[in-house]
Amino acid sequence: MNLIERAKSPTPKFFRVLRSIGLALLAISGSVIAAPVVLPVAVVTVAGYLAVAGGVISAVSQMTVGDKTENKQENQNRPRDGD
Q: Where does residue 65 rank: exposed (0-12), middle (13-18), buried (19+ CB within 10 A)?
C-alpha cells in the first residue's frame, strides 16, 4: 500500500477523534501565536510546541488504517439512508 492509498483509505473511529483533537490544538495554538496583544514568552513558546504536537498527531492519525474486519463491523453499525 503506497502513501496515497493509505491516505485515502478509511480511518478508524479512535484516530478520527484523535485527529480532531490534534487539529483543535493546532488552531488554538495558532491563534495564541498570532494574538495582536503582547503575551509572555513562555505562553508563546508553549503554543509553538502545541502547534507542532497538534500537527504531528493529526498527520499520524490520518495515515492510520484499520483492519478490513474492523471496517466491516464499523460499516454494519452505521445507519443507512432510509433507515
A: middle
Please report how many Cα atoms fall inside a 13 Å half-sphere around the Cα of residue 30, on the Cβ side: 9
Q: Give CA separation, 3 vs 9, 46, 69, 79, in Å.
A: 10, 31, 21, 30
pTM: 0.69
Q: Per-residue pLDDT tens for 33-76?
A: 999 999 999 999 999 999 999 999 999 998 888 776 555 555 55
Domain total in the chain: 1
Q: Is residue 72 domain-resident?
A: no
Structural domain for 27, as ranges: 3-66
Whole-angstrom distance, CA of residue 49 vs CA of residue 56: 11
